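Journal club prep, notes for RB
We'll compare a predicted complex against what the paper describes. Inputs for the 2-acetamido-2-deoxy-beta-D-glucopyranose case:
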Amino acid sequence: MLLSAARCLLLLLVAAAAAAAVAFELEEATVDSIRGAFADGDLTSRGLVELYLHRIAALDPALHAVVELDSDGALAAADRADAVRRLASAGDALPQPNGIPVLVKDNIAAAGGGGALNATVGSLALVGSRPAGDAGVVERLRRAGAVVLGTASLSEWCNFRAPGIPAGWSPRAGQGKNPYVPSATPCSSSSGSVIAAAANMVAVTIGTETDGSIMCPSSYNSVVGIKPTVGLTSRAGVVIISPRMDTVGPICRTVSDAVHVLEAIVGYDPRDAEATRLASQYIPEGGYRQFLNIDGLRGKRLGILRKDFFRFPSGSIQQKVFDDHFNTISKMGGILVDNLEIPSMNIINDAVQSGERALMLAEFKLSLNSYLSELATSPVRSLSEIIDFNNKHPVEERMPEFGQSYLLQSEVTNGIGPTEKKAIAKLNELCERGLEKIMRVNKLDAIVAPGASAHSLLAIGGYPAITVPAGYASNGVPFAICFGGLKGSEPKLIEIAYSFEQATKVRRPPTFQHSVV
Ligand SMILES: *[C@@H]1O[C@H](CO)[C@@H](O)[C@H](O)[C@H]1NC(C)=O
């Protein structure tokens, strides 16, 4: 029997779709697999942007990871990246992010692409504000040919509006959802960046962290987060809470992808001069990719703060998983230094006692007012006007009243006075007697901790960390292992994290998405 013409056509289409699927797999695509598909002519940057826009349209109504999309700007940037690649000769090494789509957290200004993305920190008070240009990290991404697709959702004001607000919620994007277990927390504040990466809505994302905001959501959503040493990446054009602690970093699905992005965004920026100049000394000659070393655990000394961080019910999945991981680390040549203790951990973990809260309140007002003063246009120009806006629009009708106690407490601060100087001295002392001492005395290359448990220890000194997927709890919620170290120790942390990731390969994509797309 002859096949009907329609059936023939259908078979051809199916065959063509199958061929394309073999040539390029969108799900779990990496910077390297995308570059490979570009090079083989199986994919263009424009095609990739279209695939991700399609996926975002399908998934975001359920996941709330995106605040704004700049589709036209992204397609134009993709065309430029495609043209650059067409014109490049065989031997030219294009920057790693060339043609790769990226979502940036909604506290990072991305106005320079002509596409008018607004940075609103999730707040309706900032709708209609226009940054004068790109944030320092966005400038670097664009220079490397990355395609800025849009902004990712977050906890409003990076979790600094008031205590008790649901993690990942903002009046602009609603409640961000953990794609593994939608009823579980996504953790925050870089929730949208993390959800988007986890659910394959984009190739790579950028988040920010003051104290836990990259590490915690990365852990809960099975992705890799790098929280760089403070100053390694510029904070210019970013709404930050604390210049002492805030840092901008990549959130991706693999260590290698995160390292490709890190390499593109580090460096001196005259608009964040002091911190980026100081941290520039840490940038290794030849960049960070050379530390993607499969044997990177060999000879590394890893400290386990057992009492403070590894408190699991005996017989729990976490306990078994971390025991397995420690065995793997030993087999890979890592040296575990167990049962270490930092005497003041209880104070470090208490933001009031450590001085961290007092400093954050004062620094937030200074940084926010300075950011707002630099905007090209804005309906609000100060923290006090934002507080007025919130009073006039009591929480945005959609959620119960949350209040704004952190904003109010911040507003009554008055710069870095005696209280804040005392807080700084206390934090410095906690660092010196805490992480600095334990690393020195035990000759450690890194500390290891589950999930984001070490976030305050690492926040107060501006120290770096990398989280890598480590397992899934009995309810299906992912958890990570975190490697942290002294300032500038990214090369070691990358070796450790990459070697661990390659030996364990724990990450798997959330399964719901197969039925959605
Ligand atoms: C930015 O905000 C303006 C209005 O405030 C809006 O017209 C524009 O569409 C927004 N940009 C994007 C990309 O959504």
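Talking point for the session: Confidence is low (pLDDT under 50) at residues 1-21.
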